[in-house]
Amino acid sequence: GGCLLAELATGQPLFPGDTDVDQLSLILASLGRVSEHHAAYIAGNAVLSAGVRYPARREDLTPLTVDRFPQLRGEGVEMLIAALTPEPSGRPTAAELLSMPYFHGVPESFDDAFYAELEQDRRVREAADAAAAAARDAK
Protein backbone atom coordinates (compact mmCIF):
# COMPACT_ATOMS: atom_id res chain seq x y z
CA GLY A 1 0.00 0.00 0.00
CA GLY A 2 2.70 2.51 0.92
CA CYS A 3 4.66 2.10 -2.30
CA LEU A 4 1.48 2.53 -4.32
CA LEU A 5 0.53 5.65 -2.37
CA ALA A 6 3.95 7.18 -2.99
CA GLU A 7 3.79 6.35 -6.69
CA LEU A 8 0.29 7.82 -7.02
CA ALA A 9 1.44 11.01 -5.27
CA THR A 10 4.66 11.50 -7.23
CA GLY A 11 4.16 9.63 -10.49
CA GLN A 12 7.42 7.79 -9.81
CA PRO A 13 8.22 4.46 -8.14
CA LEU A 14 9.28 4.85 -4.52
CA PHE A 15 12.10 2.30 -4.82
CA PRO A 16 13.05 2.21 -8.53
CA GLY A 17 15.70 -0.51 -8.42
CA ASP A 18 17.11 -2.02 -11.59
CA THR A 19 17.16 -5.51 -10.06
CA ASP A 20 15.60 -7.24 -7.05
CA VAL A 21 18.84 -6.77 -5.12
CA ASP A 22 19.09 -3.09 -6.08
CA GLN A 23 15.46 -2.48 -5.15
CA LEU A 24 15.87 -4.20 -1.80
CA SER A 25 18.97 -2.10 -1.11
CA LEU A 26 16.95 1.07 -1.82
CA ILE A 27 14.23 -0.10 0.57
CA LEU A 28 16.80 -0.73 3.28
CA ALA A 29 18.39 2.67 2.64
CA SER A 30 15.02 4.30 3.44
CA LEU A 31 13.58 2.02 6.09
CA GLY A 32 16.81 0.74 7.64
CA ARG A 33 15.38 -2.63 8.53
CA VAL A 34 13.13 -5.42 7.38
CA SER A 35 10.97 -7.82 9.33
CA GLU A 36 12.67 -10.77 11.03
CA HIS A 37 10.99 -13.06 8.53
CA HIS A 38 12.37 -11.09 5.60
CA ALA A 39 15.83 -10.81 7.18
CA ALA A 40 15.92 -14.62 7.52
CA TYR A 41 14.83 -14.98 3.88
CA ILE A 42 17.58 -12.61 2.70
CA ALA A 43 20.20 -14.41 4.78
CA GLY A 44 19.10 -17.77 3.33
CA ASN A 45 19.20 -16.60 -0.29
CA ALA A 46 22.72 -16.64 -1.77
CA VAL A 47 22.00 -13.96 -4.39
CA LEU A 48 20.28 -11.58 -2.00
CA SER A 49 22.65 -12.07 0.92
CA ALA A 50 25.67 -11.44 -1.33
CA GLY A 51 24.25 -8.34 -3.02
CA VAL A 52 22.04 -6.49 -0.55
CA ARG A 53 23.66 -3.47 1.04
CA TYR A 54 22.48 -2.61 4.54
CA PRO A 55 23.13 0.97 5.67
CA ALA A 56 26.19 0.95 7.92
CA ARG A 57 24.99 3.79 10.16
CA ARG A 58 21.69 5.46 10.96
CA GLU A 59 23.05 8.63 9.37
CA ASP A 60 23.35 6.78 6.05
CA LEU A 61 19.57 6.36 5.75
CA THR A 62 17.56 8.32 3.19
CA PRO A 63 14.51 9.13 5.31
CA LEU A 64 10.97 9.44 4.05
CA THR A 65 10.22 13.09 4.81
CA VAL A 66 7.85 15.86 3.79
CA ASP A 67 10.66 17.31 1.66
CA ARG A 68 10.72 14.12 -0.40
CA PHE A 69 6.90 14.07 -0.80
CA PRO A 70 5.60 17.65 -0.86
CA GLN A 71 2.43 16.46 -2.61
CA LEU A 72 1.37 14.52 0.49
CA ARG A 73 1.70 17.23 3.14
CA GLY A 74 2.77 16.19 6.64
CA GLU A 75 -0.28 14.01 7.31
CA GLY A 76 0.23 12.13 4.05
CA VAL A 77 3.86 11.39 4.84
CA GLU A 78 2.78 10.16 8.28
CA MET A 79 0.33 7.80 6.59
CA LEU A 80 2.94 6.69 4.03
CA ILE A 81 5.45 5.85 6.76
CA ALA A 82 2.77 3.91 8.67
CA ALA A 83 1.85 1.96 5.51
CA LEU A 84 5.53 1.09 4.98
CA THR A 85 6.00 -0.44 8.44
CA PRO A 86 8.29 -3.41 7.71
CA GLU A 87 6.67 -5.83 10.16
CA PRO A 88 3.23 -6.76 8.77
CA SER A 89 1.74 -7.28 12.23
CA GLY A 90 2.65 -3.68 13.09
CA ARG A 91 1.28 -2.20 9.88
CA PRO A 92 -2.09 -0.40 10.11
CA THR A 93 -5.13 -1.93 8.44
CA ALA A 94 -6.82 -0.13 5.56
CA ALA A 95 -9.54 1.06 7.96
CA GLU A 96 -6.88 2.43 10.34
CA LEU A 97 -5.13 4.22 7.48
CA LEU A 98 -8.44 5.75 6.36
CA SER A 99 -8.97 7.13 9.86
CA MET A 100 -5.63 8.98 9.85
CA PRO A 101 -5.56 12.82 9.69
CA TYR A 102 -4.67 12.80 5.98
CA PHE A 103 -8.26 11.82 5.21
CA HIS A 104 -9.91 14.21 7.67
CA GLY A 105 -12.16 16.54 5.75
CA VAL A 106 -12.96 13.99 3.05
CA PRO A 107 -16.75 13.92 3.04
CA GLU A 108 -18.29 10.79 4.54
CA SER A 109 -20.78 10.89 1.69
CA PHE A 110 -18.06 10.50 -0.93
CA ASP A 111 -18.96 6.85 -1.51
CA ASP A 112 -22.66 7.61 -1.83
CA ALA A 113 -22.10 10.44 -4.31
CA PHE A 114 -19.60 8.38 -6.30
CA TYR A 115 -21.88 5.36 -6.53
CA ALA A 116 -24.87 7.55 -7.45
CA GLU A 117 -22.84 9.05 -10.29
CA LEU A 118 -21.79 5.60 -11.49
CA GLU A 119 -25.43 4.45 -11.40
CA GLN A 120 -26.53 7.51 -13.38
CA ASP A 121 -23.82 6.84 -16.00
CA ARG A 122 -24.98 3.22 -16.25
CA ARG A 123 -28.58 4.29 -16.81
CA VAL A 124 -27.58 6.76 -19.54
CA ARG A 125 -25.54 4.07 -21.32
CA GLU A 126 -28.39 1.57 -21.08
CA ALA A 127 -30.89 4.11 -22.47
CA ALA A 128 -28.55 4.92 -25.37
CA ASP A 129 -28.04 1.21 -26.08
CA ALA A 130 -31.83 0.60 -25.99
CA ALA A 131 -32.45 3.54 -28.37
CA ALA A 132 -29.80 2.26 -30.78
CA ALA A 133 -31.32 -1.25 -30.67
CA ALA A 134 -34.83 0.16 -31.29
CA ALA A 135 -33.54 2.17 -34.26
CA ARG A 136 -31.91 -0.96 -35.72
CA ASP A 137 -35.10 -2.97 -35.21
CA ALA A 138 -37.21 -0.26 -36.89
CA LYS A 139 -35.22 -0.54 -40.14
Q: How would you sum up this structure in a few lines?
A:
The protein is mainly alpha-helical and 139 residues long. Helices cover 58% and strands 0% of the residues.
Please tell me about this protein's structure:
With 139 residues, this protein is mostly helical. Helix content is 58%, strand content 0%. The chain contains 7 helices and no strands. The chain has helices spanning 2-10, 20-31, 36-44, 46-51, 73-83, 94-98, 110-138. Helix 1 packs antiparallel against helix 5 (73-83). It starts with a helix and ends with a helix. The model has no long low-confidence stretch (mean pLDDT 82).
Characterize the main sheet.
none
Fraction of helical residues: 55-70%
Strand content: under 5%
Q: What's the SSE pattern? A: HHHHHHH
Instruction: Give the overall pLDDT as a whole number.
Output: 82
**How many beta-strand elements?**
0
Class by alpha and beta content: mainly alpha
Q: Overall 3D geometry?
A: elongated
Radius of gyration: 23 Å
Which consecutive residue ranges, at least 5 long each, have pLDDT under 50? none
**Multimerization state:** single chain
Compute the separation of the termini in Å.
53 Å
The number of helical runs is 7
Keywords:
139 residues; mainly alpha
What are the SSEs and their pairings?
Blueprint (H helix, E strand, L loop, with lengths): L1 H9 L9 H12 L4 H9 L1 H6 L21 H11 L10 H5 L11 H29 L1
Helix pairs in contact: 1-5
